[in-house]
């Protein structure tokens, strides 16, 4: 009995020290509105703060409280973390990290400067961006450009462990923010434009040992798909759900990378993410042996995986046989909505293809799929009748099909452009209004595919693009409020350029975002009325965040123009079709802003 009692005590002690603890730490920190403990605010990706000291009645009085130069140019995406009295700042390549003491005039406690081979810059698709850090159990987690996952002691900045997640010589890079769930830190991989094979990988937060890896394309055992238990639109995916939708072994260079955002439901123990485009951008090279379209699963898909095992619970493909580079990597926001009289645990996803999807996140059931910008013209809609063989699929307008039009033919005026009506810049959800506040790229394109050969580490694109505003318009951006239950725009306000900044909503009744030409703006959640506007040092592609320190609320954001939209300025490109087609559309940016790298923090006087 005594031996059994000792064994039980040991087991209990071991259990207390293990997995669930880290999960609880992240939840505790995320629930403390004084902190900004995850890049997306919380596991649900709401980007909503309960802080209300700054509100719709006084936000117009905001003043700059302090600023910090990162010392790095190129595009500054993501946002800092605030844990207790310390702020953790990250930069684009070379991915420096600063820990600032908020109690001591933002003194630099430590700086981490990783050693990376600068040749990785050449295989970073759309600027040298990094989307943020993760924190749990006294560690800061960084995902470097060269795919190294690093765990640092949050107090000292000293390395605890490193793990190499990919190979830049093949075109694999790291740009996304990790997520910590239970005892695991999870990352994806960038590089679909180089013909890599996308995957998601979990590492043990204590040791850095790989726990599991799930590919998005390929054999079932490597994707961690169960033919009988993994669902798609309510049905088992069946055996070889991916490889039977590829031509021969093309899946081995099939793309489907993961570089956007993760969300997590602790009750369901599922992590959600989106996969990117298939390689190459020339759809004719991905056709079946009979020359017909094939789906290329599971690129362009939302996938839900069990955190402990990596096994996929369900998957839904938004754009089968993608012909326009409509990556599916955008964030998945978890909430609850009543749809057709029934309450659902929902997942809301604003896809690059221009449709806003509301799904039941427990099983992947499709509930709503509607355009979130009226200029969408490549599809007449998504089939919602479950009895139809094309249920859940978009109906393509033939004149906008780059596949039907063929290689070396310039398909004209396709809306949205490849960068989507929204890219990875995350929306915010306010439980106060039950609305989603969404940053929009109001951009269309011409798209001409051409034959391309695969060489490891070399671009595998195969298309020439040019981008421009929709016909009759001069602006290329909006901010909108979206009703996810009804699939309707509640209101919309134009911006001069695409809004490439992540949105913050707060209990103060406001939502805030940056602009590409370099403004920080806050608006009323009820109608979108502009309540505050201030010029920052450079164009904004970072995400607005907030925290409280010593009883005072602060709102901040990075400035530092770049990313896909600002790649012309960031990389010194001037040919209109450079930057995968973006340079021409954003040529006017240089009249309003230039390179920078700074954090601006605001408070009330």
Task: State the secondary-structure class.
Answer: mainly beta
- Over all CA atoms, what is the radius of gyration? 23 Å
The amount of beta strand, in percent, is 25-35%
Shape: globular
The pLDDT mean sits at: 95
Treating each run of at least 4 consecutive H or I residues as one helix, how many helices?
A: 6
Which percent range fits the helix content? under 10%
The total count of strands amounts to 40
Largest sheet: 5 strands, mixed
Distance between the termini: 66 Å
What order do the strands of the largest sheet run in, or round the barrel if closed?
Answer: 1-34-35-36-37
Describe the protein:
The N terminus is likely disordered. By secondary structure, the chain is mostly beta strands. The chain contains 6 helices and 40 strands. The relative contact order is 0.13. It is globular. The chain is 7% helix and 34% strand. A hairpin with a 5-residue loop joins strand 13 and strand 14. A 5-stranded mixed beta sheet has the order 1-34-35-36-37, with no helix packed on it.
List the helices and strands and how they pair.
Elements: H1 2-17, H2 20-31, E1 48-49, E2 63-69, E3 81-83, E4 86-90, E5 97-101, E6 107-112, E7 134-136, E8 139-143, E9 148-153, E10 159-164, E11 179-181, E12 184-187, E13 199-204, E14 210-215, H3 220-223, E15 231-232, E16 235-236, E17 263-265, E18 270-274, E19 301-306, E20 312-317, E21 332-339, E22 342-350, E23 355-360, E24 365-371, E25 379-382, E26 394-396, H4 402-405, E27 411-414, E28 428-430, E29 435-441, E30 444-449, E31 463-468, E32 477-483, E33 488-495, E34 504-506, E35 510-514, E36 519-524, E37 530-535, E38 545-549, E39 552-559, H5 567-571, H6 582-585, E40 598-603
